[in-house]
Amino acid sequence: MREAGSFLRHDEEGFKAFLALEFGGSVEKYRRMTENWGDYTWETPAGGWLIYGFGGYHRFYVREDGIVDYSRSHGGAEAAEQAAALGFRIC
Q1: What is the pLDDT of residue 1?
Q2: pTM score, two decimals?
Q3: CA distance linking residue 83 with residue 65, whole number of Å
């Protein structure tokens, strides 16, 4: 299984898209957040991983096959459009 931490550390394109949506593209903002609060990732009971976005509003689901879904119900229509434009699958 592809772990959430692996996605954030080793999938450069996916990580850049995550940073763009959550931190305006700033690696420094992400670094400061993780130093203070951890990486906000949890394994889900059904397999895969859940990543909480900055502030806990947005949700990203890393499926066992490596696809990363963005939850429309946790971010709203505008954020979902941005996530889709960055290449995330919307659920």
Answers
A1: 39
A2: 0.75
A3: 19
